[in-house]
Design brief:
The protein has 3 domains: 88 residues, Helix Hairpins, CATH 1.10.287; 127 residues, 3-Layer(aba) Sandwich (Rossmann fold); 78 residues, Alpha-Beta Plaits (2-Layer Sandwich). By secondary structure, the protein is an alpha/beta fold. The termini are far apart.
Length: 333
């Protein structure tokens, strides 16, 4: 819009300052004025060309041929290009939303597509989540463009509004990730999501530790404090650069070590966590998390899930390094 406006103004001034070289064929005796310059510019750049105002001097005709004609082409390219870009963008969004709606249900809704949101989506996709099963909700133009570029379905709007969340299919979502840059918006979005979907797993980010309790009361199942997490990593790195490097390695996908959750195998039932090939750091039993040294999980039982540290080259959700087809011990026989 700014470029098109600049072309209009530039052409108008060019004609006005050289107005003595133009004539109005409807009234040859009348001098060409500012209104005539504006009129001539608009009909010329739009290729309408009524011919009532025309250049009569040789230099004015040369200016029209070598200056105004290229400006006319640039003006039309801007208008047509912008229109095609808008239509193509809308078409891509409609196609992605249509493709997403066909498989809507048990999908993932990501509210806020900034740095945290993009990292969360990248982690999900790298761990096997179908790209078509993710929908992004954001109101920022840059974030929406990034989501389009990444091939994700996008719902434009304020995520604290029910109608926007309904369009994103929150009521049927299995997971909702909330990562806007404002804690108050995160709290309100969490409340609205929980009202629309009491069963969804909600993971939310907050900037300040003091808002964690409020976020949990609003209905979030898991709350990540971004500023505290970064501060702790910086503190660890200052105390021990090697420890900081290991922690950063654990948080970086695809390199070195990974933290993963997996099912217990039948062959592992009854064993202590320390005896397994994976480095077990915690055991999930009856929806509670126990440290590997807790007396409650001295012996592993059917239905347990393991939080392990393993090489990044292994599939994060594979049973254990090098074995992908073993029987899980998730149910009683």
């Amino acid at each position: 819009m700014l470029a098109a406006f600049a072309i209009l103004v530039g052409t108008m001034l060019l004609v006005y300052f050289d107005r003595d070289a133009y004539t109005d064929n409807n009234d040859p005796e009348r001098a060409v004025g500012m209104v005539d310059a504006i009129y001539y510019t608009t009909v010329t750049l739009s290729t309408t060309g009524y011919g009532d105002i025309a250049p009569v001097e040789a230099h004015a005709r040369l200016i029209n041929a070598f200056v105004i004609t290229p400006l006319r082409i640039a003006f039309l390219v801007l208008l047509i290009g912008t229109t095609l870009e808008v239509l193509a963008s809308q078409g891509r969004e409609i196609f992605r939303i249509s493709r997403w709606r066909k498989s809507m249900g048990q999908h993932v809704v990501v509210i806020g597509y900034g740095t945290k949101g993009r990292s969360a989506v990248e982690t999900l996709i790298n761990n096997g989540q179908d790209r078509d099963g993710i929908v992004v909700v954001d109101s920022g133009a840059a974030a929406l463009e990034d989501a389009h570029t990444d091939g994700l379905a996008v719902v434009t709007g304020d995520a604290t509004r029910r109608e926007v969340l309904r369009r994103a299919g929150v009521a049927n979502a299995s997971h909702v990730i909330i990562t806007t840059d404002r804690d108050d918006s995160n709290v309100l979005a969490t409340l609205t999501v929980r009202q629309l979907n009491p069963k969804a797993l909600i993971v939310a980010a907050v900037r300040e530790q003091e808002n964690v309790a409020l976020m949990r009361q609003s209905g979030a199942d898991s709350v990540i404090t971004s500023s505290d997490a970064v501060g702790r990593l910086i503190g660890l790195s200052s105390l021990s650069p090697t420890l900081g490097s290991v922690m950063e390695d654990l948080l970086t996908y695809g390199e070195g070590l990974e933290v993963a959750e997996r099912d217990l195998l039948v062959s592992e039932v009854g064993q202590p966590p320390q005896s397994l090939p994976d480095q077990v750091v915690a055991v999930v039993r009856d929806e509670r998390v126990y440290r590997y040294f807790d007396p409650v999980v001295t012996q592993l039982a059917r239905g347990d899930r393991l939080i392990v540290v393993r090489p990044a080259k292994e599939l994060p959700w594979a049973p254990r390094p090098g074995t992908h087809d073993e029987e899980f011990a998730t149910e009683e026989p």
